[in-house]
Amino acid sequence: QVQLVESGGGLVQPGGSLSLSCAASESIVRFDAMGWYRLAPGKERELVASIRSGIGTNYADSVKGRFTISRDTAKDTIYLQMSSLKPDDTAVYYCMMSDYAAYWGQGTQVTVSS
């Protein structure tokens, strides 16, 4: 069973930056899709950013130009670099990796508030 461990959440002021990490217990080269989702109170789960084999990266319109997804296969880790954060970015962020099954991290809270 693949395990994904997230880190990097926290409290940040509007306009600030934060970086999330998601480390996998196995090699991530096996996954054809990896991404970050978020879930905010009263809202539906949203795909924030993804990396897909043969397609590349994709971002939600709400984060384009502010968030960057990346991966380090040597460390079996994906990252989400977030900048120009807004209160609307407040949510629990989950990483996901999939091949024939989908694996999820435990979630990390990001709170954007002054």
Structure, briefly:
By secondary structure, this protein is an all-beta fold. Helices cover 0% and strands 53% of the residues.
Folded structure, characterized:
The chain is mainly β and 114 residues long. It has strands at residues 4-7, 10-12, 18-24, 33-39, 46-52, 56-59, 67-72, 77-82, 91-98, 102-104, 108-112. Strand 7 (67-72) and strand 8 (77-82) form a beta hairpin. It is globular.
Helix/strand layout:
Elements: E1 4-7, E2 10-12, E3 18-24, E4 33-39, E5 46-52, E6 56-59, E7 67-72, E8 77-82, E9 91-98, E10 102-104, E11 108-112
Parallel strand pairs: 2-11
Antiparallel strand pairs: 1-3, 3-8, 4-5, 4-9, 5-6, 7-8, 9-10, 9-11
What labels would you give this structure?
seven-stranded mixed sheet; mainly beta; 114 residues; four-stranded antiparallel sheet
Based on CA atoms alone, the radius of gyration comes out at: 13 Å
Instruction: Give the overall average pLDDT.
Output: 96
The number of helices is 0
Q: Quote the distance from N terminus to C terminus.
A: 40 Å
